[in-house]
Design brief:
Distance between the termini of chain B: 51 Å
Chains: A alpha/beta, B mainly alpha, C mainly alpha
Largest interface: B-C, 57 and 53 residues
Order of helices and strands of chain B: HHHHHEHHHHHEHHHH
Order of helices and strands of chain A: EEEHEEHEHHHHEHEHEEHHH
CATH architecture of the largest domain in chain A: 3-Layer(aba) Sandwich
Number of helices of chain B: 14
CATH class of the largest domain in chain A: Alpha Beta
Helix content of chain A: 25-40%
Strand order of the largest sheet of chain A: 6-7-8-3-9-10
Number of domains of chain A: 2
Number of strands of chain A: 10
Strand order of the largest sheet of chain B: 1-2
Structural class of chain B: mainly alpha
Radius of gyration of chain A: 19 Å
CATH superfamily of the largest domain in chain A: P-loop containing nucleotide triphosphate hydrolases
Number of strands of chain B: 2
Distance between the termini of chain A: 41 Å
Strand content of chain A: 15-25%
CATH topology of the largest domain in chain A: Rossmann fold
Structural class of chain A: alpha/beta
Largest sheet of chain A: 6 strands, mixed
Oligomer: heterotrimer
Chain lengths: ~300, ~325, ~400
């Protein structure tokens, strides 16, 4: 069963102060509640998986709590500070950084520029900084560049450093987006299907790196994932969404035997069956993103 | 005007025109360079479709002319004030419209530009309507004359009257090009490019997309104002007809010709385009003046269509700049 | 206004704070926002009129505004009704200043102009909706139509009706030809928005100045009777104006109904939603696109003839209609034929009413300001669904 998970934090996340809390979050599209009173919390320093059948509202939930969609109800706090109602860039600056399901590589910028862009506290990003503090800007740039090179090394992207990001393969873009998010110095990282499209070797490396960031830098993770193998073995907490709401929350071994969860995946087998079943069999009742045409704020 | 052969420059243009004429083309090309630098900043580097640049140019030129002739402000002092006024207009146009989708933004900025032009045409107490405003440039003429006497003292016996303006417009154009080129290499410029690629990605990384777009548009409006000064100094008057959207679209032709996301290409594009555009006057064709002017704009249209169809990256742009983005 | 992310997470610059505060205003209840908007409109009108109308009219004005606010509170979620209420309140306010006759007289002229905007807007909105092409050359198709009518009915001496049909046919042909030569190949290459927009601007120059090259810049007329008027309840309606309004309305309502109920209309909507999906589901998309251009072209031609008949022909004729037509399209919601009709009429009336307040030279500027306001408040238009904006 769960090997890497439930280790240091195994005693149940609820006893540790949550870094993130959401309560009764609602997002409506037309008459449909894509997210319907979702309530959950993420323990500080945990690796929490967010699972659920297609159309459960997972990505919409991400979009709401990171400020890309305007919530229609509920509250969410990160490190005790209000999140809902803030624009995405402020939420990111608070240390709550996300990636996207469909990668957003900045195509006509080099891989290195993609990385440097993400680093915070760059005085050269404001016009006054450019004019008044060019030295500080250059110093920060050097600092950040060495960090970028380290991260690119980890994800096997070093030889692509000067390429246009648009020339990368799908898997490479995924890795670039993840390492770019890490450049933003997150304390809470939200990953939307980080493993999709990445070969298993690199996937393993990605998971190892997540573990290391958690133990060394205390980064907390919340990730959407369909591969149950990954979820069961690499997370210490699992939150299950269905029909826009959270139906279960517990350690991996509790989740796999939870009747409600099995019912939610009904027709697709139990969550153990993994990605194929969960993505194929569920009726598309909510159309997560599908019919929804509102653009994120 | 003196034939070019009499000039000690050793360059002979007398086959089809005088040096004075080509200096005139040079002034126009320089003005358009400054004008299109603003478009490059917006379209090429930030990804916002500013179709209202002619309107900003109108605000700049009219503010300067009104300040000098009506308010008695010194010409040199009027320039920074006029730039500031134009930047406030840039802010007013940008605040509501920069949240719009790109195609709507294009329509909104074009509409704003036309609203400005129609106001200059109708607010007669302020702008003298279609009669225009004259006599704002005595201080500049003084400078121009002292440059001429300086030229005479170094041995150019009969300098062209347009030469000082030509010199100044190109010094300013090249300085601005250099400045923007440097600015683009800073982290600030990197954020702009990120916005052009994907606004959501930039926002997810903590960049305040709206503020950067606003800065980009306001800076472009300032460049429009500076171009407006040179346009006014060249014509020696300002009239509403000089600020038709055609001006903006010529700017776009220059922008594409020189290549998107390439500041130095702007000057090259402006020189090439204006040489052809003005040079058409010298074709010996059995047609009327109206037809010649029509022909020039047909050419502009064909240049735009041809570039978009066959070479969207322009003459000097990188191929990736057009291919990867779409 | 520095956007530096150098600041610690909690710190925002003053500019950012102000902008966020303004953004939060949109969270206020609809009734408050709508009421404030109406009051603001009234105050601006009163300022332009330099004061209240005085006497019993002032009482009436205040009553109208209060009734308007009351009506608006009931219209939440129905933007078309909101627009209707605003126009009625505007009508009422102008009535208190200028009396029924002046307001109706300008209103009728506005409806007639609005019919021309609407004819232009239907074609533009269909092309915009189905092909996602923002066609800046659409205005110049109007000019082309007007000059074709000039050629047929003035140069060749054919009856005007024949000239109109000729103009519509020729403009439709141009539309189809351009689709085959320019737009279809560009779509196949997957060109971007900027490429399409600049190409259509280039095309606009070619059409407009080709017309100038051939026919010169002098003003020309179609030789239509522009002096006879009909008296209707004291309002004088120009004969040509009346015909334009009636014919325009008939054609537009007919087309709107046809598009709503015919198979062609259904297919157009399918293409509008998702062109590739429509293609894979077996719809002959090139045929639907062809019909789109036939409609867009012929209506643009007709609008051009009407515009030329009520004013004069010159090469800039259509370009001057372009932005009002865009405004009508945005107002009505992109891709919606009935929306274009309503948007065109609404805009025509509001623009013409503005001549009661300011010099008529500002007319077009008023149209552009309406366009900008609509884009800001409701970019998806009064009939549009919440689309991505």
């Amino acid at each position: 069963m769960s090997s890497a998970a439930a280790l240091a934090h195994g005693s149940g996340a609820s006893s540790i102060a949550p870094i993130f809390q959401a309560e009764g979050v609602v997002k409506k599209f037309g008459g449909i509640n894509a997210v319907n009173e979702a309530t959950m919390q993420v323990a500080d320093g945990s690796i929490t998986a967010l699972i659920g059948p297609n159309g459960a509202g997972k990505t919409t939930f991400f979009n709401v709590i990171t400020g890309f969609y305007r919530a229609d109800g509920g509250t969410a706090t990160f490190e005790g500070r209000r999140v809902l109602g803030r624009p995405p860039y402020l939420i990111a600056r608070m240390g709550m950084v996300r990636t996207f399901q469909i990668t957003k590589a900045l195509a006509r910028m080099s891989v290195l520029d993609n990385m440097l862009l993400a680093a915070p506290h760059q005085p050269g990003e404001s016009l006054s900084g450019v004019l008044l503090r060019p030295g500080a800007s250059r110093r920060r740039e050097r600092e950040v560049a060495s960090k970028a090179e380290e991260l690119l090394e980890v994800f096997n992207l070093t030889k692509l450093t000067d390429q246009y990001a648009g020339t990368l393969s799908g898997g490479q873009r995924k890795l670039l987006e993840l390492s770019r998010a890490l450049m933003a110095e997150p304390r809470f990282l939200l990953l939307d299907e980080p493993m999709a499209g990445i070969n298993p070797t690199l996937g393993r490396r990605l998971l190892d790196h997540m573990q290391r960031l958690r133990s060394e830098d205390g980064v907390t993770f919340l990730f959407i994932e369909h591969d149950m193998e990954v979820v069961m073995n690499h997370s210490d907490r699992v939150v299950v969404m269905a029909q826009g709401t959270v139906i279960a929350d517990g350690e991996p071994h509790e989740i796999r035997s939870d009747q409600k969860v099995i019912d939610a995946y009904l027709g697709g087998g139990s969550p153990d069956d993994g990605a194929e079943s969960s993505s194929a069999a569920t009726p598309r009742s909510h159309g997560e993103g599908g019919r929804v045409t509102e653009r994120p704020r | 005007m003196e034939p070019a052969t009499l000039l000690p420059l050793g360059v002979s243009f007398d086959a089809f025109a005088s040096l004075g004429f080509w200096l005139g083309v040079g002034v126009i090309a320089g003005t358009f360079t400054i004008f299109a630098l603003g478009l490059q900043l917006n379209v090429g580097f930030t990804g916002i479709f500013n179709f209202g640049q002619a309107g900003f140019m109108a605000i700049g030129a009219y503010s300067m002319a009104i300040l000098v002739t009506e308010e008695g402000v010194n010409f040199w002092l009027s320039l920074p004030i006029a730039i500031a006024i134009t930047m406030v207009f840039g802010l007013i146009v940008g605040l509501p419209s920069l949240r719009l989708r790109t195609d709507y933004l294009a329509i909104a900025t074009l509409a704003a530009s036309e609203a400005i032009r129609l106001t200059t045409l109708n607010a007669r107490e302020l702008t003298n309507g279609s009669q225009g405003i004259f006599g704002f440039d005595t201080e500049f003429d003084d400078l121009s004359e002292s440059i001429e006497s300086l030229l005479i003292s170094v041995g150019w016996s009969d300098p062209e009257t347009l030469f000082p303006l030509f010199m100044i417009v190109w010094i300013v154009a090249l300085l601005l090009t250099f400045g923007l080129w440097r600015l683009q290499k800073t982290p600030w410029g990197r954020v702009l490019r990120a916005l052009r690629e994907d606004e959501d990605a930039a926002r997810a990384l903590g960049k305040n997309a709206f503020a950067y777009k606003l800065q980009s548009l306001v800076m472009a409006s300032a460049l429009g104002a500076i171009a407006g000064f040179f346009l006014a100094l060249n014509l020696k008057f300002v009239v509403p007809d000089e600020f038709l959207p055609n001006f903006t679209f010529i700017g776009f032709a220059i922008l594409i010709l020189g290549g998107l996301a390439n500041y130095w290409g702007v000057a090259v594009g402006a020189i090439i385009f204006q040489t052809i555009f003005e040079g058409l006057r010298f074709l010996e064709l059995p047609i009327t003046e109206v037809q010649v002017s029509a022909l020039r704009y047909i050419l502009l249209g064909l240049v735009l269509i041809g570039l978009m169809a066959f070479r969207p990256q322009g003459l000097f742009g990188k191929r990736e700049e057009m291919v990867l983005g779409e | 206004m520095e956007a530096g992310s150098a600041a610690p997470a909690s710190d925002r610059t003053a500019g950012e704070r102000i902008y966020e505060f303004l953004g939060r205003l949109t969270d206020l209840p609809f009734a408050i926002r709508a009421g404030a908007g109406l009051v603001l409109m009234t105050v601006i009108l009163a300022l332009v009129e330099s004061g209240l109308p005085g006497g019993i009219e002032t009482v009436a004005l205040i009553a109208i505004v209060i009734a308007g606010i009351a009506a608006l509170t009931l219209t939440e979620g129905r933007p078309a009704l909101v627009a209707g209420v605003v126009v009625i309140v505007l009508f009422g306010i102008l009535l208190t200043y200028h009396g029924l006759l002046a307001v109706s007289q300008t209103g009728i002229t506005g409806l007639s102009n609005g019919a021309i905007y609407a004819l232009g807007a239907v074609g533009l909105t269909l092309v915009y909706g189905i092909l996602k092409l923002v066609n800046f050359a659409h205005g110049d198709l109007l000019t082309f139509g007007a000059y074709m009518a000039l050629v047929a009915s003035v140069f060749w001496g054919l009856p005007l009706v024949v000239g109109i049909v000729f103009a519509m046919a020729m403009t439709a042909l141009v539309g189809i030809a351009l689709e085959k030569v320019m737009w279809a190949p560009m779509r196949r290459r997957g060109a971007g928005v900027l490429q399409f927009v600049l190409m259509s601007i280039g095309l606009a120059f070619v059409i407009r100045y080709a017309i100038q090259y051939v026919y010169g810049t002098e003003l020309r007329t179609l030789g239509v009777d522009n002096t006879s008027t009909i008296d209707f309840l004291g309002v004088r309606i120009g004969q040509t104006q009346g015909i334009v309004l009636l014919v325009g309305l008939l054609i537009l309502v007919g087309t709107g109904l046809m598009l709503r109920f015919s198979i062609l209309g259904k297919r157009m909507r399918a293409l509008s939603d998702d062109l590739e999906l429509a293609e894979t589901s077996g719809i002959d998309t090139s045929r639907v696109i062809l019909w789109t251009w036939v409609l867009a072209g012929s209506f643009a031609g007709l609008a051009g003839v009407f515009a030329g008949a009520t004013t004069q022909l010159q090469p800039e004729l259509g370009f001057e209609f372009l932005l009002p037509i865009f405004a009508a399209v945005v107002l009505g919601g992109i891709g919606d034929a009935f929306g274009a009709l309503a948007g065109g009429l609404l805009l025509g009336v509001v623009v013409e009413w503005s001549t009661l307040l300011v010099a008529s030279g500002y007319k077009s500027a008023i149209g552009f300001i309406v366009l900008i306001i609509v884009l800001i408040i409701r970019p998806q238009g009064i009939f549009g669904r919440a689309r991505s904006i």
